[in-house]
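Structure (tokenized):
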């Protein structure tokens, strides 16, 4: 990413867009997530779950783009989650303010979400409630999504006014990770921030990997500003943009007369970065002789200017980046394996935009604000009128989140500029025919499959999966099915499509699960009193079969079970 792109992606504070900090763990969820933690000693960190979440991509009040709702009850308790005009509340991760969607054109009758087979999810839409579309397909009755589709992200359009992305998110994050000037709340970007914090104060070289346009220079700048060299210079060099015959002189400097046209001494980028950080982008494009010189400076801390014979010591933190497959280039003998090993003292992988679709709306808002403020029209992105027409139309928002973004954030920034400037003087954004064609190309398929609304016993029958071999059921799938079935073993067997006795066998073999007989009398008694004798609450906390737990409660003479 070039320097201008890094600035465009990084000036978060002035734009007022909060970065990812953390999602607080609610006490209820911490108590429910006890399958693994139940065996651990008290005081261990909570166990993170991957739970369904809803993130606002477009809203009549644009400042609300990026707010999120975690559907924790689906993963931790196997219960239904409801969404309507008035509840529940959305907020920015780590933010204090929380508000419902609040659009008066949405119904008070809720859209419901319930666990589906094998980690999937079902969405139930009431006939006389809010009109819902998945991408551009209307939903009648309901729709079912696989876990893979949830992982990719599912765009939901409510009443053609509010666009949400249904996706997976972590239920818990360690506190203390700042936004570092990087826009986004997605899991991939959160991991990048954690990696930056881990390595920023160390002297090891860092290799940043990622596709073109993902923001690798922004990551390098965050490493620099988060480390002890922040007061020193940050020098960025794109090796792919330098003439091959001048790369060595540009990097290491040159003495006068060292080559034709060298009429004076040249300092070089290494000495320009003295006491700070040198960022080498597209390091895979370095010529063989430059690779050898880079290896030497990494091993000795000294450079030889072109035409010089005396080594010059340098004190530089080296951060490099590439979108090339360096291992393949080593096999082709165009890149030196020892250099890769030296450059990659620590690796950071920056995810492509298509793997962090939940950040598309927030990034779009960030770039839009920059463009509008440059034109003196930043007020368009702040309104308190819930009846206003959405500035980002629903159809366009869906196109943005479904597009594959081969150029990643750089491409999104350019599309944003095209939309904002092309819509100048109009009340909302609009795409011309050419841009419509670009956005529709290589779009994500419409996810999910139609589903009819089920009630009562029909819902139970509909949850049965095709018959399978018990050996095909993994531990994590078994755990998710038990949670989704509220630890009812018959319902779990139907869910997984295996005989009920096989569920007992799988539980006994599992390293993640325990049975009621594994519980100590002290643990059962303590949980009984903390849950005030509510057996359902005890089941959710202890995560064991309700019938078996009820027998243990009676055996211990506890009343109320």
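Design, position by position:
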């Amino acid at each position: 990413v070039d320097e201008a792109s890094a600035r465009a992606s990084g000036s978060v504070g002035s734009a007022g867009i909060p970065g990812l900090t953390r999602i607080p763990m609610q006490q209820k969820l911490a108590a429910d997530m006890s399958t693994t933690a139940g065996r651990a000693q008290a005081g261990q960190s909570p166990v993170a779950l991957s739970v369904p979440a809803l993130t606002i991509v477009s809203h009549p009040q644009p400042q609300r783009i990026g707010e999120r709702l975690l559907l924790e009850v689906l993963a931790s308790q196997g219960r239904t989650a409801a969404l309507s005009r008035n509840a529940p509340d959305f907020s920015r991760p780590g933010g204090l303010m929380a508000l419902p969607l609040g659009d008066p054109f949405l119904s008070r009758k809720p859209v419901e979400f319930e666990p589906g087979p094998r980690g999937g999810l079902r969405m139930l839409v009431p006939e006389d409630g809010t009109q819902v579309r998945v991408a551009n397909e209307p939903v009648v009755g309901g729709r079912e999504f696989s876990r893979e589709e949830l992982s990719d992200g599912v765009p939901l359009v409510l009443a053609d006014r509010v666009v949400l992305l249904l996706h997976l998110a972590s239920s818990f994050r360690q506190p203390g990770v700042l936004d570092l000037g990087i826009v986004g709340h997605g899991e991939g970007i959160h991991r990048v921030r954690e990696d930056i914090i881990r390595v920023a104060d160390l002297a090891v070289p860092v290799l940043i990997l990622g596709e073109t346009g993902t923001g690798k220079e922004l990551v390098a700048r965050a490493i620099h500003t988060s480390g002890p060299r922040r007061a020193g210079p940050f020098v960025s060099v794109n090796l792919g943009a330098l003439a091959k015959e001048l790369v060595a002189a540009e990097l290491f400097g040159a003495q006068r007369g060292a080559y034709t046209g060298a009429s004076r001494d040249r300092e070089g980028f290494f000495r320009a970065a003295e006491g700070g950080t040198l960022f080498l982008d597209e390091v895979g494009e370095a010529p063989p002789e430059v690779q050898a010189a880079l290896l030497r400076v990494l091993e000795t801390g000294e450079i030889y200017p072109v035409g010089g014979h005396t080594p010059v010591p340098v004190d530089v933190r080296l951060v490099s980046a590439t979108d090339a497959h360096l291992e393949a280039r080593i096999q082709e003998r165009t890149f030196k394996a020892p250099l890769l090993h030296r450059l990659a003292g620590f690796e950071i992988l920056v995810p492509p935009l298509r793997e962090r679709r939940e950040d598309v709306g927030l990034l779009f808002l960030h770039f839009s604000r920059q463009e509008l403020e440059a034109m003196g029209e930043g007020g368009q992105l702040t309104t308190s009128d819930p009846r206003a027409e959405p500035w980002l139309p629903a159809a366009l928002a869906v196109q943005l989140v479904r597009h594959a973004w081969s150029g990643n954030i750089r491409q999104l920034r350019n599309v944003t500029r095209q939309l904002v400037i092309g819509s100048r003087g109009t009340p909302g954004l609009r795409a011309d025919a050419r841009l419509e064609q670009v956005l529709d190309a290589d779009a994500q398929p419409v996810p999910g499959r139609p589903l009819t609304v089920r009630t009562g016993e029909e819902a139970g029958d509909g949850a049965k999966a095709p018959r399978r071999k018990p050996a095909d059921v993994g531990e994590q799938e078994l755990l998710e099915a038990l949670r989704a079935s509220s630890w009812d073993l018959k319902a779990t067997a139907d869910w997984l499509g295996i005989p009920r006795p096989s569920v007992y066998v799988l539980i006994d073999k599992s390293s993640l699960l325990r049975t009621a007989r594994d519980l100590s009398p002290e643990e059962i008694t303590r949980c009984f009193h903390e849950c005030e004798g509510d057996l359902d609450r005890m089941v959710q906390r202890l995560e064991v079969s309700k019938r078996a737990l009820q027998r243990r409660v009676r055996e211990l003479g506890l009343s109320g079970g």
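Reviewer-requested clarification: Residues 470-556 form one domain. The radius of gyration is 28 Å.
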